[in-house]
Design a protein that fits this description.
5 helices, two-stranded antiparallel ribbon, 115 residues, 2 strands, single chain, globular
């Protein structure tokens, strides 16, 4: 089916997702003398959410690290973390800070800013 023939509600749903802006997250704990660290993240799509939660159990908090690896970017759009960082992230990052940042990425409603 061509895009021109898609149902108007479907078109509106796609336009809604496309209009969502990325979020900016200040992380004081990871900052320095110049101020808090600033992370940027674009909204998760369904494929990314499935990738993150695939095979995770209800008590598997490592998915929070997966969210950061997948979505956290610096001001230039470069990834802040990589898959190779995951073992160290699981052992050496403050779980409360990781949870707070990942939650902001997973549920950014009301926190969107236009870029």
């Amino acid at each position: 089916m061509s895009e021109a023939m898609r149902h108007p509600i479907f078109q509106q749903a796609v336009e809604h997702f496309d209009s969502r802006a990325g979020i900016v997250i200040e992380v004081p704990e990871w900052g320095g003398p110049d101020g808090p660290a600033v992370l940027h993240a674009e909204p998760l799509n369904l494929r990314e959410k499935a990738q993150i939660f695939r095979g995770a159990s209800a008590d598997d908090l490592s998915v929070l690290v997966d969210v950061l690896i997948l979505k956290a970017r610096d001001g230039r759009g470069e990834p802040v973390f990589s898959r190779a960082d995951k073992p160290l992230m699981l052992r050496r990052l403050d779980p409360d800070v990781v949870a707070r940042v990942a939650e902001r990425i997973l549920s950014p409603a009301g926190d969107m800013e236009k870029n």
